[in-house]
Amino acid sequence: MGHAWGFGRYGGPEVQEFFDRPDPVPGRCEVLIQVDVAGVNPLDHLLRSGLVDGLDGGRPFPRVLGMEAAGTVLARGEDVIGLEVGDAVFGFALTGGGTYAETTVLSAPNTARIPAGLSTTVAATLPVAGTTAVDVLDQLSLTPGATILVNGVGGGVGLAVARLAVARELRVIGTGSTAKREHAEAIGVRFVDYTAENVTAAARAMVPDGFDWIVDLAGGSSLRSVAPLAQDPRNVISVGDISVSDLGGRFVERRTDRESLERSARLALDGLLAPVITAVHPLSGAPAALATVENGHTAGKVVIKVT
Ligand SMILES: NC(=O)c1ccc[n+]([C@@H]2O[C@H](COP(=O)([O-])OP(=O)(O)OC[C@H]3O[C@@H](n4cnc5c(N)ncnc54)[C@H](OP(=O)(O)O)[C@@H]3O)[C@@H](O)[C@H]2O)c1
Questions:
Q1: Which of 51, 135, 177, 301 to mutate for ligand 1's pocket (most ligand atoms within 8 Å of CB)?
Q2: How many A from CA of 274 to the centre of ligand 1?
Q3: CATH number, span 140-251
Q4: In this model, does residue 96 exceed pLDDT 80?
Q5: What does the pLDDT look like over 118-144, one tens digit per residue?
Q6: C-alpha distances in angstroms, 169 versus 137, 157, 163, 165, 266?
Q7: 301 CB under 6 A from ligand 1?
Q8: Of 31, 133, 178, 197, which one's alpha carbon is 20 to 30 angstroms from that of 82?
Q9: Do the domains at 2-126+256-305 and 140-251 have one common CATH topology?
């Protein structure tokens, strides 16, 4: 039996609740883990609201929140390859187990061992934001000195994209609200504060010929206002807003397999993918942790330390 936090039906924060559940029994390709740390992501509240389908395994209510975690393998399904009981692992709960819980099941093909030297807390932030950032960089054709605008640089994915881009010797300009300036500048980003200046005018002054690439994390009207700053509309890539295709750009293609997790872990060990963890909550603080992310203005990554 383990304590968990989730929701009894689709809706807003009012449908969230703590409850106890028996430890899930791992399916053939799942591992049961003792959760040490769970990462918090915008996708969590989108799943709770019922706006996103097909990613929470269609399990009965109450469902547990959370898509990513790091912890220790307690049991494994009969078809699991390459993971053993006792291993420290990190990965995705793509089969609906939820990770804001003392124990959960992870999908084994979407789970990897935590390499020596990498902290469990950092590992827990890699499945969603870390691998997304790696996918974004993989999908841009880049030469050193290329210009990139990261729209929404201060959040979990934005800071990870910016960090990787700076390491590739790109010229990185990032947008965000005032509190994100310090985080962005600390990793070598030229920052545009959208609360204090006209973003398009400021960005155009910095890169008059237009950006080689625009990576969008903010979506909506913000995406539409920055998209014309790209030299070529096809060079606008969004991570959160599929309507980017209406502007001639494209939505990021995602990889969530073990190899991709292992690669993100190596980049983290090399210091090239160093998540900025701005808040660590206990499991009892899960409501506050998700509320921070749900308000849409998170700095870096928020995590829940369960054990
Ligand atoms: N496709 C995928 O597999 C995938 C994977 C990961 C994430 N996502 C999506 O990608 C988006 C970003 O994810 P995330 O984890 O980085 O979210 P996050 O941590 O919540 O960060 C979003 C950032 O955008 C900033 N922002 C909001 N409005 C803005 C605006 N008008 N201009 C500039 N910045 C603005 C926010 O803070 P400030 O406004 O205070 O600067 C915040 O720092 C979300 O929509 C998420 O669902 C998709």
A1: 177
A2: 17
A3: 3.40.50.720
A4: yes
A5: 999 999 999 999 999 999 999 998 888
A6: 12, 19, 10, 7, 19
A7: no
A8: 133
A9: no
Whether 300 lines ligand 1, by a CB cut-off of 6 Å, is no
Tell me: the pLDDT tens digits for 203-258? Answer: 999 999 999 999 999 999 999 999 999 999 999 999 999 999 999 999 999 999 99
- Residue 157 Cβ contacting ligand 1 at under 6 Å: yes
Give pTM, 2 decimals.
Answer: 0.97
Distance of alpha carbon 72 from alpha carbon 74, whole angstroms: 6
Atom of ligand 1 at shortest range from CA of 129: 6
Query: Which ranges in 63-211 belong to alpha helices (H)?
Result: 120-124, 131-138, 156-167, 181-186, 199-206
Give pLDDT tens digits for 152-163.
999 999 999 999
CATH of 2-126+256-305, picked from 3.40.50.740, 3.10.450.50, 3.40.50.300, 3.90.180.10, is 3.90.180.10
Question: How far from 15 is each of 9, 12, 62, 292, CA to CA, in Å?
Answer: 6, 6, 10, 17
